[in-house]
Design goal:
The protein is α+β, with helices and mostly antiparallel strands and 286 residues long. It folds into 2 domains: 112 residues, Gcn5-related N-acetyltransferase (GNAT) (Aminopeptidase), CATH 3.40.630; 135 residues, Aminopeptidase (3-Layer(aba) Sandwich), CATH 3.40.630. 34% of the residues lie in helices and 28% in strands. The strands form 2 sheets. Strands 1, 2, 3, 4, 5, 6, 7, 12 and 13 form a 9-stranded mixed sheet that branches. It has a 5-stranded antiparallel sheet with strand order 8-9-10-11-14, with helices on both faces. Helix 1 packs across helix 2. The chain is globular.
Length: 286
């Protein structure tokens, strides 16, 4: 198999979306888990958005001029680049395309000067875990994907409201305090899309979420702030939302609220990593 790589273009959306859906479905079906994407159309719409975003890098793999896989790199943070989703046509998996696509985004991250690269790996997919370990990634945090009915309720003393551009500075300070870096571009995107929320105590921002969703993340001072954000969510878009498993207090609270664990995942990194000093929810990117 002669494999070639090139930078992805907007016209690749349908091809990479179809492969992404089929690849994730094949892996999930093999392990008897629900797929991350319910249809090829949903996967295509997501990846089309990434392809049109100026701060996403995307690469495709081709064999004989036909697209057989893709990988994405989220470059919206100045400190961390986030990998994924990576997918390869199920008929060509285990032939080196996945490694080549990973190496391409890792080179890109290095060339752009990012101090760290992060990704989230499905716990049931041992082949991807082996690949990422071979490429130098370190296991940092076990995660659970939670799903179920959203409560859509308020918490006394913890009002939740839509985030505005005026909240960016306070949210950036909070993220810097918890993670050691900012994710302001992601938050700005979420504010523009109308999905971002902040929680306040005594008139100050004590937590925020781009969305309580698979591709959303949250940062807060305490678990109670996160509980208010989760409780106020009207839905959990995608397969669910991610919670660090070691935050057993928060996981137990979610289970007590009627949510259930769908599957486990692993946060992995290369380069600099600060152990978070606060409450947080990762996205499926990092």
């Amino acid at each position: 198999m002669i494999l070639s790589l090139r930078r992805a273009e907007a016209a690749d959306a349908a091809a990479v979306g179809d492969i992404c859906y089929r690849a994730f479905k094949a892996i999930a079906d093999a392990h008897r888990f629900p797929p991350d994407f319910p249809s090829a159309e949903v996967a295509t719409a997501l990846l089309a958005g990434f392809l049109s975003h100026e701060r996403f890098f995307a690469v495709v793999a081709e064999v004989g001029g036909r697209v057989v896989g893709s990988n994405f790199l989220d470059e919206r943070s100045n400190a961390v680049s986030g990998v994924g989703p990576i997918s390869v046509d199920p008929a060509l998996q285990n032939d080196g395309a996945g490694r080549a696509l990973m190496q391409a985004v890792m080179r890109r991250s290095q060339e752009r000067g990012f101090p760290a690269i992060r990704l989230v790996q499905a716990g049931y997919h041992s082949r991807s875990l082996a690949l990422y370990l071979k490429l130098g990634f370190e296991v940092r945090e076990p995660l659970v994907c939670l799903q179920g009915p959203a409560a859509g309720k308020s918490t006394a003393g913890y009002p939740v409201r839509p985030a505005t551009p005026q909240d960016l500075e306070a949210c950036n300070r909070l993220c810097l305090r918890v993670h050691g870096h900012e994710r302001d571009s992601e938050l700005a995107d979420a504010i523009a899309q109308g999905t971002a929320r902040v929680v306040e105590r005594a008139g100050r921002v004590t937590g925020y979420a781009t969305s309580i969703a698979f591709f959303g993340y949250a940062v807060a001072e305490t678990n109670d702030d996160l509980k208010a954000l989760i409780g106020a969510a009207e839905s959990f878009p995608g397969p669910g939302f991610l919670v660090p498993t070691r935050n057993t207090e928060l996981v137990r609270w979610c289970l007590g609220e009627g949510l259930r664990i769908a599957h486990t995942l692993t946060l992995m990194t290369t380069g600099l990593y600060n152990s978070p000093a606060g409450a947080w929810l990762p996205s499926v990117t990092y």
